[in-house]
Design goal:
Helix content is 33%, strand content 28%. The chain has 9 helices and 13 strands. The protein is globular, with a radius of gyration of 22 Å.
Length: 336
């Protein structure tokens, strides 16, 4: 990924919360207030340390809660650069001492400049452009598509999202990957570069169109930053025509046996969310740990919960036939 190297003197941080819940009008107000500061170097003042080890920080007139190095003290002034506002505000914290002259690495400067250029283009990076789906076409032609084909399409959608582009290039360059140059050209960064080259060579409106390319690239960088910080990959698109879907994949590291404690295997967690015409809001989370498969489903209404629960035996039988026996199937109502 873009941010794995060249950031020795900076740390990516995001506010855990801005003292209001996500989606709250005050949260949106916070993002709008910070928009003109995108890409700029700011000073954060540490107000206090909380009981859970996080810190209250005042920055640009707003107070937010942040995870900071544990040697941070109340009253410290922290230089940081705002590099993203979506899906939430993200900063690059300079790691030098408070009284030392510190600078961002070349990679950090590139990210900050990229997002600042996007903001100057006149298109807000927290607009519909930045929140557009990673997939612009449905992954299934119909809701009755074969599961095996759906799995392949989901895999390809995540693989070509652009989030892992730099690691794919590195693997291709050293011969350790199974991707061809043609595969790399299908990812957004490569397509944007090719499009920019065509625009610059023949289009009289090149500056405006290149600016739009920069906005799209800034959106991808924002997603990479969020993936790096959260250790979770997110995808948005249409499952089939007219049916939006959100998908997240996360790895929970295992733990070796130590001092009489049992080893904890690695757990893979995959969550999909839908808002369906009949069932309403539905979310399903799959946990895979040491060959054990668990599925937890939530539905917004009791009627939807009962309907999904009724199909549990059929799901279990299908997974058994596929060689992945289901150890737990839980369906509950959650109206939130």
């Amino acid at each position: 990924m873009l941010l794995r190297t060249g950031l020795a003197d900076a740390q990516v941080i995001s506010p855990l919360q801005s003292l209001v819940t996500i989606g709250h009008p005050k949260q949106e107000e916070f993002q709008r207030a910070m928009l003109p500061l995108l890409g700029q170097r700011l000073q954060g003042e540490v107000v206090s340390r909380l009981g859970d080890g996080n810190f209250l920080v005042k920055i640009a007139g707003s107070t937010v809660q942040m995870q900071l190095p544990q040697n941070t003290r109340a009253g410290d002034t922290l230089p940081m650069t705002l590099v993203s506002l979506t899906p939430k505000a993200t900063f690059l914290l300079e790691m030098g001492g408070n009284n030392a002259e510190t600078t961002l690495s070349p990679a950090a400067k590139m990210i900050a400049n990229l997002l600042q250029l996007a903001q100057k283009s006149g298109t807000e990076t927290n607009s519909a452009t930045s929140n557009s789906p990673l997939s612009k076409s449905p992954i299934m032609q119909s809701r009755s598509a074969e599961p095996a084909q759906v799995a392949i399409t989901l895999h390809d959608a995540m693989r070509t999202s652009g989030v892992f582009y730099e690691s794919h290039i590195a693997a291709w360059a050293d011969g350790t990957g199974n991707r061809s140059l043609a595969d790399l050209k299908q990812e957004p960064q490569a397509r944007l570069a090719e499009q920019a080259a065509r625009i610059l060579s023949s289009d009289a409106e090149a500056p405006q169109k290149i600016a739009m390319n920069t906005v799209e690239l800034a959106r991808i960088v924002s997603q990479q930053l969020d993936t790096l910080e959260q250790q979770r990959v997110s995808w948005r698109g249409e499952a089939w025509l007219g049916q939006p879907m959100e998908w997240e994949v996360q790895e929970h590291p295992g733990q070796d046996a130590n001092d009489g404690t049992e080893a904890v295997p690695v757990t893979w967690q995959s969550t999909v969310r839908f808002d369906m015409p009949t069932l309403g809001k539905v979310a399903a989370t799959v946990y895979l740990q040491a060959g054990q498969l668990r599925i937890h489903v939530t539905a917004a209404s009791e009627e939807a919960r009962a309907e999904l629960q009724a199909h549990g035996q059929k799901l279990s039988a299908s997974l058994d036939a596929a060689g992945s026996p289901l150890s737990v199937f839980l369906v509950k109502q959650d109206a939130s």
